[in-house]
Structures are given as structure tokens and as C-alpha cells.
Amino acid sequence: MDVSLFDKCIKYISQNYKVVLLEDLAFSDKLHTRHQYATIMFDDGYKDNIEYAAPILDKYKCKASFYVVTESIDNNVPTWTHILEHLFKFTGKSEIIMDFDFLPAELQIKHLLNVEDRIRYVNKLKPYLKKISHERRNEILKRIAETYNDVTLPELMMNWKDLKELRNAGHYIGSHTVTHSMLGTMSDEKEIMEELVRSGSRIKEELDYFPVSISYPVGSFNETTKRLAKEAGYKLGLAVKQNIYNPKRDDFYEISRIELYNESWWKTKLRILNTLENIKSLIRYK
């Protein structure tokens, strides 16, 4: 999102809602009042959160929650969703053998001759990867990383010093797992629990508390995810449903959120108001 658009969003939200931390609101009696509250959240842990977002939040006296991928913070490596696009964009190689028998025919290729072809291909591949099992996704990601080994990954993430600065400014740091794995697509409960516990424990090592909140990467979760999140010690589980959270309908381990994008202001405002999704529902738009 452009900085100017983000500024406009925070200005509008701060003028029309009482902005509070989700982690404060969830356990307060205010959750069940008629007042209009808003919470502001960021996933992953990118450096632009502290370089650009934090000063704007401070400008409008807003506090926010930042959910971080701990391995990305430790190693200054982006999430797999970012790495995937970066590799296809910047590799100098034309050959890549994508011969997995479970791939749709249109995604089974051997060559991508130029950057335009690669970008078109990854734009088809990425949505498909979000629908398949964790194991199959990792097979494909491993093949891509091994093939496009001529690309240097960008250093885009915050570090623990940045996160301590955000915490000391009154913001909240929560978990977004260890590796940004899509929890709802994982079948091994031990592996899921490791993502949940290790990330929370790493935050505790650096920030002196085990977070109450876990943001499910790519909004992927199921009943097993919710159960294990609770067992791991989390009190809140955050989804991405493009809807306003309703405490009478949704439980604490399935909290709806509205994701904003780099779009026109009128469309962004409709998203904030939840009007866009209501319109889509009325016309049955997918």
C-alpha cells in the first residue's frame, strides 16, 4: 500500500472509530457495547512497518498489533509468498522442470523464456499453491528454490530491536508462526504445534511475554488449528474473512479481519466500512 493511501486510511479510521488494540478489546466489556471500535493489524514483520507505518500511527495517536514470522525476523528472510514471486522475477535461468504429477497440465512446464512468461506463470501458480497440502507445496517450493539458485534474497524484515521499539511505544507483537506455513493445510499435529509453540516462545525470549494472539498465515486454519492454538497457550486466533468480527457469532479463535490493498480510496473506504463485501454478497460476486 502506498504511504499516502495508508495515511489517509489511518486518518479516516482514527476520526470515525475509537482505535484500540485487539488484545485489549477482546478481554474487555467494551467488546459487547454499541461503540464503534477499530483495531489495526499488520502481518509478517516487514521493515516498512516501522519505517513508514509506525510514524503515521504515532501521528494519529493509534496503537496497532504486529504479527511476526519469527524465522523471518531471526534471519532477515521474507516469507515464502514473497520469495516465490521474487525468484521468478529476478532469476536469469530459463529452464525449470515442473513435472509434478499432481500439478494441473497448464502448470507442468519445462521452460520459461523471459521475465514476462515467468511472471504470468507465478501469478497462476501462487493461488494454486495456497489450495494444496503443506507437503506438496513444500515439494514445489523446494524445486523452485533449487532451480533459481542464482537469485539473492532481499533483506526486508524487521529485527528484534525494531520489535522492542514498537512494543515500548505501546504496540503489541503477536505470532504469525515460525515459517509462515499455512496451518489449515498441515496434517501433522506435532508439526503444527511446533509452529505455534516455537514462534510464541521466541517472542517470549525477546520480548518477555508469550503472545495471547496468533494470526494464521494466509488466513489458513481449521478446527484442528483452533484446538492446537488453544492448547499452545494462545487466547485469540485471527483469520482473514473480509468481514467485521461479530462476538455474538464468531469465537475467539476465528476472529474475522478486513484486509486492505493498494487500491483507489473509494474502494478502500468501502472495504473499511465493510460495504464492498456486502455488495458482493448481494450480487453473489466471487
Short key terms for the protein model shown above:
two-stranded parallel sheet, 286 residues, 7 strands, mainly alpha, TIM Barrel, 3-stranded parallel β-sheet, globular, 2 domains
Could you characterize the architecture of this molecule?
It is built from 12 helices and 7 strands. The chain is mainly α and about 290 residues long. The chain has 2 domains: about 200 residues, TIM Barrel; about 70 residues. The longest helix is centred in the last third of the chain and has 19 residues. The chain starts with a helix and ends with a helix.
Short description:
The chain is mostly helical and 286 residues long.
The H-and-E topology, N to C, reads as HEHEEHEHHHHHEHEHEHH
In DSSP terms, counting alpha (H) and pi (I) runs of 4 or more, how many helices?
A: 12
CATH superfamily of the largest domain: Glycoside hydrolase/deacetylase
Poorly predicted runs of 5 or more residues: none
CATH class of the largest domain: Alpha Beta
Number of domains: 2
Helix proportion:
40-55%
The CATH topology name of the largest domain reads TIM Barrel
Q: Which range does the strand content fall in?
A: 5-15%
Going across the biggest sheet, name each strand in turn.
3-4-5
CATH architecture of the largest domain: Alpha-Beta Barrel
* Number of E-state strands: 7
**How is the biggest beta sheet arranged?**
3 strands, parallel
End-to-end Cα distance: 23 Å
Estimated structural class = mainly alpha
What does the secondary structure layout of this molecule look like, with pairings?
Layout lengths: L2 H14 L1 E2 L2 H4 L11 E2 L2 E4 L3 H12 L5 E4 L1 H6 L4 H11 L24 H15 L4 H14 L12 H9 L3 E4 L13 H19 L5 E3 L7 H10 L3 E3 L26 H8 L2 H9 L3
Parallel strand pairs: 1-2, 3-4, 4-5, 6-7
Helix pairs in contact: 1-3, 1-11, 5-6, 9-10
